[in-house]
Inverse folding.
């Protein structure tokens, strides 16, 4: 089995990386059957982003002892190959965010966990959020809003009071962050075929930035979020009783995956 290892820059993760490569070797990512990421969820997300595009490889992550590592498996050195062969596969699509800044610059980015539109200064953000062309209750006033995938729903979305989503539910979370004023805001679960549009009101006076897994874009004027169904990411998990309670639908190892799924 050909494995490409990546690790956090932390000393303990780098030490573990050396032990794994000494034992299992180190393959070039383009030739590897899978990527093994050592660290926390940030390392896992960077590894997934590095595999986006044609020939994407599944990622098996292992958390260091001090990391929360929701996306990762326990760190063990002596049974890696059997774990990879028996791993449960979770394939999904990231979000694609198409943005336009106040100066007219357009950029498209992919994000795996979530997309957060947050105030850039001490002034509150004023956002007009629409789903499939229908406004969501008027102008949102507060710190910002976020759009989360099921995979990211236990991260910032959860701490902001958003719903935790089953992994294969086919829905997205739309969650307000510190909504102000008398106008109520209802956090919402959306069908993942939805197109979410965020228009920033008075962006020159109340600037807003977009934060994703790996990108931060300032001075957003408008953005559109959709599920990127042309892109497939795959995480591998140990087949344990906790995961059996989740709606994983595929089993089976480190071999490259064909058509994928949500």
């Amino acid at each position: 089995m050909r494995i490409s290892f990546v690790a956090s820059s932390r000393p303990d993760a780098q030490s573990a990386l050396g032990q794994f490569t000494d034992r299992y070797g180190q393959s070039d990512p383009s030739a590897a059957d899978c990527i093994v990421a050592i660290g926390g969820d940030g390392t896992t997300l960077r590894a997934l982003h590095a595999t986006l595009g044609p020939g994407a490889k599944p990622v098996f992550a292992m958390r260091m002892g001090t990391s929360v590592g929701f996306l990762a498996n326990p760190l063990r050195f002596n049974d890696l190959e059997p774990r990879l062969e028996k791993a449960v596969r979770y394939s999904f699509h990231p979000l694609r965010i198409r943005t336009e800044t106040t100066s007219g610059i357009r950029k498209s980015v992919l994000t795996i966990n979530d997309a957060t539109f947050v105030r850039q200064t001490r002034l509150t953000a004023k956002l007009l959020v629409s789903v499939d062309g229908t406004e969501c209750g008027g102008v949102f006033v507060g710190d910002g809003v976020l759009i989360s995938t099921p995979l990211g729903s236990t991260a910032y979305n959860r701490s902001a009071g958003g719903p935790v989503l089953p992994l294969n539910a086919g829905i997205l979370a739309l969650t307000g962050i510190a909504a102000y004023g008398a106008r109520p805001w209802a956090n919402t679960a959306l069908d993942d075929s939805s197109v979410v549009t965020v228009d920033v009101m008075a962006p020159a006076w109340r600037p807003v930035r977009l934060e994703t897994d790996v990108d931060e874009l300032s001075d957003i004027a408008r953005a559109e979020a959709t599920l990127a169904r042309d892109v497939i990411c795959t995480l591998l998990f140990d087949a344990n009783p906790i995961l059996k309670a989740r709606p994983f639908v595929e089993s089976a190892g480190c071999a490259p995956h064909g058509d994928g799924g949500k």
About this structure: The CA atoms of residues 120 and 208 lie 5 Å apart.
